[in-house]
Design brief:
It contains four helices and six strands; from the N terminus they run E-H-E-H-E-H-E-H-E-E. The chain is an alpha/beta fold and 164 residues long. It has one domain: Rossmann fold (3-Layer(aba) Sandwich). Strands 3-2-4-1-5-6 form a six-stranded mixed β-sheet, with helices on both faces. Helix 3 crosses helix 4.
Length: 164
């Protein structure tokens, strides 16, 4: 059994309309939500073996803030340019490349690809993955390359405005 955790980056800052999209940082809400969601994840006692993140600034900040909250060494985050505005197929290709020794992997990336990817795993979870939203799945396999043909079940779906 594998566990896959998909995270959309936290809320980004749009105060500078001339700033390149890739370089946008988290706004105040994003800087608050990412550690909060990391703490919620930590409360679930899920041991994350690997975090893989887009290299866009807002995704990198989100990955690092969540990593700190779950006591994951930020130096071990794997940074991939191809996760910047990745399609579902690209996200899936990242999963195929994971080492089978990794039981729980977290991927941090962007919309719209992330919403489409999450909904393709085991049915519709959300019409729009919220910023700093987390969708986690149990994947019935021992091999990441078998991900698309393996039975998947939603473990949980959480986001900052969720009051459950």
């Amino acid at each position: 059994m594998k566990t896959l955790i998909i995270v959309r980056h936290a809320k980004s800052d749009w105060t500078n309309p001339l700033q390149k999209d890739f370089d946008r940082t988290l706004n105040e809400r994003g800087l608050m939500n990412a550690p909060m969601m990391g703490k919620r994840l930590a409360s679930r006692k899920i041991n994350v073996d690997l975090i893989v993140s887009s290299t866009a600034i807002r995704a990198a900040q989100t990955a690092e803030l969540i990593a700190n909250a779950i006591y994951y060494d930020t130096k071990k985050i794997k940074w991939l340019n191809k996760l910047y505005h990745a399609s579902p197929a690209t996200i899936e290709s990242v999963i195929f490349e994971l080492d089978d020794n990794i039981s729980t992997a977290m991927i941090v990336c962007h919309n719209p690809g992330i919403t489409n990817f999450v909904n393709s795993i085991c049915g519709v979870v959300t019409d729009n993955m919220p910023t700093c939203g987390i969708a986690a799945f149990n994947i019935d396999t021992n091999y990441w390359h078998q991900f698309p043909t393996s039975k998947a079940a939603l473990l949980f779906f959480d986001f900052p405005k969720n009051n459950n």
